[in-house]
Amino acid sequence: MTQPQSSVITDEMRGHIGKESEPTTFEVDKTACRMFARAVGYTDPVYYDEEYARSRGYRSIPVPFGFLGHPAYNPNAPQRLGGYFRFQTPFKRVLNGGTDIEYFDTVCAGDVLTATSKLADISERQSRLGPMLITVTEFTYRNQDGKVVATMRGTGIQY
Amino acid sequence: MPEQLYFEDVSEGREVAALTQHCDSQRLVHWAAGSGDFYQIHYDKDFAQGTGLPDRIVHGALKHALLGRMLHEWVGDEGRVKRVACQYRGMDMVDKDVICKGVVTGKRTENGENLVDLEVWTETAEGQKTTPGTATVALPSRS
User: Fold this and answer.
1) What is the pLDDT of residue A83?
2) Are B81 and B7 a contacting pair, CB within 8 Å?
3) How high is the mean pLDDT of chain A?
4) What is the C-alpha to C-alpha distance for residues A146 and A124, in angstroms, rounded to an integer?
5) Which of A12, A67, A89, B92 has a Cα at 20 to 30 A from B140?
């Protein structure tokens, strides 16, 4: 494969591969489960009715597939360098390239998840939109008992 | 919810009941709030066109979640959707149908769980496959 004339991948970026981030807390609550379920068009009452969810054996409303809670937004918290991406890049536009979510245990409203992430891969390619930087970030989610309940691999495309 | 599906009932090549979701701008706003992704290309037409897009596009992660719903409705109350992985290769425009489909590619038993692997994807009403992917679900056994 031909390398682009000037690669946008720096040693600094490569140095981030495998480095685990500081943890972020994700809270799972009933309203958020309902809002996610509603957006995706679920009619299964298990995602809306806590009493019904309990009758089905869940401790509270379970998360619809793909939901992993929300971080507690705080406008006063210092912005992380690069935002979602840990380093600055010359690209101004970003697209979501893909999502891979796997659950290892049940997640329900009331759970508090702690997630750490690491850069798993970084690559670049030329496209009809110009040079693109592709990153794969792996997130590991643990619940309040320290159990790994889910992982997510997200592919980001900057161009 | 339909009748419970059992591990013994599925074999390679079996199709999952397709799911069609019309994605108007209101649904994309619901998803923005439900997911926390407020990127304006999904609900602000001027902004979307300013980035070179023809119009607002469906969030990739919503398509991932729709594949999850398709599988949830297929596996029944006793089944579990374990994993969905997909790539957002093509764009789905606002005010169009996103059609989710799947087909069984294999079965296996691991750590006492009866798992079914699938190829899943979304396509447009014109049949363009925009979001290819794979999935794994767990099904109960009759025994």
Assistant:
1) 45
2) no
3) 91
4) 36
5) A67
- Give the residue from A42, A67, A92 where a domain finishes: A67
Cβ-count burial of B124 within 10 angstroms (0-12 exposed, 13-18 middle, 19+ buried)?
A: middle
Task: Kindly list the structural domains of chain B, giving each domain's residue range(s) and its CATH number in brackets, ordered by start.
Answer: 7-138 (3.10.129.10)
Alpha helices for chain A (secondary structure H)? 11-14, 30-40, 50-55
Q: Which of B66, B72, B87 sits opposite A98 (nearest CB)?
A: B87
Number of A to B CB contacts under 8 A, please give it: 94
CA distance A2 to A15: 23
Percent of chain A's residues with pLDDT above 70: 92
Distance of residue A121 Cα from the nearest chain B Cα, in angstroms: 16
* Domain contains A87: yes
For the entire predicted model, the pTM comes to 0.94
